[in-house]
Amino acid sequence: MKKWKYLTMTAVMGSALMLGACGSDSAQNGNNTETNAPSSSGQDAADEKLQGAVAGDGSSTVAPIIEAVVEEYAGTQPDVKVSVGVSGTGGGFEKFIAGETDFSNASRHIKDEEKAKLEQAGIAFTELPLAYDGISVVVNPENDWAKDLTVEQLKKIWVEDGKAKKWSDIDPSWPDEKIVYYSPGTDSGTYDYFDEVILDGADLASSATLSEDDNMLVQGVAGDKNAIGFFGYAYYLENKDKLSIVNVDGVEPTNKTIESGEYAPLSRPLFVYVKNSAMKDNEAAYDFIKFTLENGGDMADAVGYVSLPEDEYSKALKTLEGLK
């Protein structure tokens, strides 16, 4: 991994936690991050300097990677202002469709209805891969029974069936205590992905606490012995002293099992979607996305996700170059 000139791991994870509040609530409250770069060093002075502004929004899962990239980019282009909001994948696409952003971070593929709205708005876009994530199912450390769950058990736990479920409903040998649920909000791409591969489109348990703030989910599970939740792998790694990870069908999420796809079906790619016209007409936006693809893999590894193979970044850079 590169030795970052402007960024320490403490700064990376601190920024990641600050960005945890992600959803429609945070958007309404104006919760976004703007980074104005520090003065560049003498070594960088010889490099081409740009001026301008770049705006992005989207996934809280992707946010730790992008915020780390923003911090590093600030040291190379001191006159470019990068503003990154965290409204969740769905909320980010809403702003993208409205023409408010140059790029949109996503923890799922864009939906057909979102594509249609972009077409109607006359906005051409391109999907670029950024990293891998493994949605992590977590329980309270005092939970010594649900250490390994099957996909079918996860479905039985999380699907609404009209009654208050107890752990003993899943396995008679487990405690006769109500299950307490913590889930990402409906604007989250993590929610959408979990809905697709675990719930099969069924309703999530109605008693679940939903939040676009992943750190709130961490606190909820950490504070209740009977709680269960799920969110991106990086948030588990940052809080593994407070949580216990759950194996799914006997497989623990790790960098290796996420990258290989062995951690199925909860391994998934992460993306950044770019507005084609911004890549052509806004030199600062193009340069920032180019920097993201060149350095995002290292930053993904640094904050707890899994980088793509190098050839995937090379292909993405060629695709981006073709938009100019």
Automatic annotation (TrEMBL):
Membrane topology annotation: Lipid-anchor
PROSITE patterns recorded: PROKAR_LIPOPROTEIN
Protein keywords: Cell membrane, Lipoprotein, Membrane, Palmitate, Phosphate transport, Signal, Transport
Signal peptide segment: 1-27
Subcellular location: Cell membrane
UniProt feature, compositional bias: Polar residues: 28-43
InterPro entries, A to Z: PBP_domain, Phos-bd, Phosphate_ABC_transporter
Residues in PBP domain copies: 46-293
Region (Disordered): 28-47
Subunit architecture: The complex is composed of two ATP-binding proteins (PstB), two transmembrane proteins (PstC and PstA) and a solute-binding protein (PstS).
Family: Belongs to the PstS family.
Job description of the protein: Part of the ABC transporter complex PstSACB involved in phosphate import. Involved in the system for phosphate transport across the cytoplasmic membrane.
Stored NCBIfam families: ptsS_2
UniProt name for this protein: Phosphate-binding protein
